[in-house]
Amino acid sequence: MAYFPNGTAGDEYSSRYCERCIHDEACAVTMLHLVHNYDQCRDTPEGKLIKGVLDTLIPRSNDGLDNECCTMFVEVK
């Protein structure tokens, strides 16, 4: 799951990937993360489901310290 602890982290990710992607202007992945970023931290069945979905869309690095490239990323040519 891409976890963005603050706006700066989200902006840095957006600069690295989103702004270079064909989906940037109408990205469902970005919207899902904006709406459910904190919901995934709840220890409830709903929170675990949300975390699973967000993990699939933007996986964490193996060391858990960074967000990997979005699985929907298609670079603008």
Defining traits:
77 residues; mainly alpha; 3 helices; 42% helix
Beta-strand residue fraction:
under 5%
Q: What is the alpha-carbon Rg in Å? A: 12 Å
**Number of helices, counting only DSSP H or I runs of 4 residues or more:** 3
Helix content: 40-55%
Instruction: Give, in order, the helices and strands.
Output: HHH
Low-pLDDT windows of residues: none
How many domains make up the 3D coordinates?
Answer: 1
Overall SS class? mainly alpha
Brief summary of the model shown:
The chain has 77 residues and is mostly helical.
3D structure, described in words:
The protein has 77 residues and is an all-alpha fold. It has one domain (1-77). The protein is 42% helix and 0% strand. It has 3 helices and no strands. It has helices at residues 7-16, 28-36, 45-57.
Give the SSE map:
Blueprint: H1 7-16, H2 28-36, H3 45-57
